[in-house]
Amino acid sequence: ILLFILFVVLFSFSYKKLKESDLKQIVATLRNDPLPVNPMDEVKQQLSEWAKQEQLQSQIDIVKKEDSVSIEIKDKVFFSSGEYELSPVGLNRIKTLAKTLEKLPAKLRLGIEDHTDDIPIHTKQIQDNWDLSAKRALNVLYALELSQELLKRTQVIAQGEMNPLVPNRDKNGNSVPENQNKNRRVTIKVF
Predict the structure, then answer these.
(1) pLDDT at residue 173 above 70?
(2) How many C-beta neighbours within 10 Å does residue 166 have?
(3) At what angle do helices 88-101 and 129-144 cross, to 10 degrees?
(4) Between the N and C ends of the chain, which has fewer C-beta atoms within 10 Å?
């Protein structure tokens, strides 16, 4: 068995796709220990409970990957169309989300992203979609009122219209309103 464990350890160093969590599962299996819990499973569960509590299941998508959990929140959950100030309902929802995010294990990081559609915007307060996206992402950050410890592990990213989930326009260049609706979102990523 020791020779096998040595082989697994050496293999893990040479094979870049093998993650620390994989190695922990292998060791636990060999020792007949309970399998370690993936922290991302716990994060997904906590975010799912928040969404259920806030009755947002139809307005968000929670996606767990190997090393991250993303929650895609439709922009209308927090903002009115073309606005960067949080709606009163959105502000309350963010306050409850903050309680969930503060429970993140110390080794995990937090990302706050805002995405817009490609419809041009220009007002006295908003220069363009980049500006709208940046202001929204920052307002989400400020409203969360995170602890200093979590703030040190937090990133804010304005994506503007540059990272759509689906094309904003069809092959002929015509806007596709249902796709534009999908692309207007706030993403909170735990990684």
Answers:
(1) yes
(2) 11
(3) 60
(4) N
Residues with Cβ within 8 Å of residue 6, at least 6 apart in sequence: none
Question: What are the CA-CA distances from residue 168 to residues 73, 115, 116, 182 (Å)?
Answer: 18, 12, 10, 9
| Length of the chain in terms of residues written | 191
Tokens of 27: 């060791």
Nearest to 114 by CA among 148, 62, 149, 74: 74
| Torsion angle of the four alpha carbons 73, 79, 81, 82, in this order, in degrees rounded to the nearest 10 | -110
pLDDT of residue 6: 75
Considering only CA atoms, give the Rg of the chain.
Answer: 20
Provide the pLDDT for residue 140. 98
Contact indicator for 189, 39 with CB cutoff of 8 Å: no
Nearest CA to 136 out of 191, 94, 179 is that of 94
Q: 2-38 pLDDT, tens per residue? A: 777 777 777 666 655 666 666 677 777 778 888 778 8
- Cα separation, 144 vs 94, whole angstroms: 6
Determine the Cα–Cα distance for residues 34 and 158; give it in Å rounded to an integer.
Answer: 41
Q: What is the pLDDT of residue 105?
A: 92
Average of pLDDT values for 96-115? 96
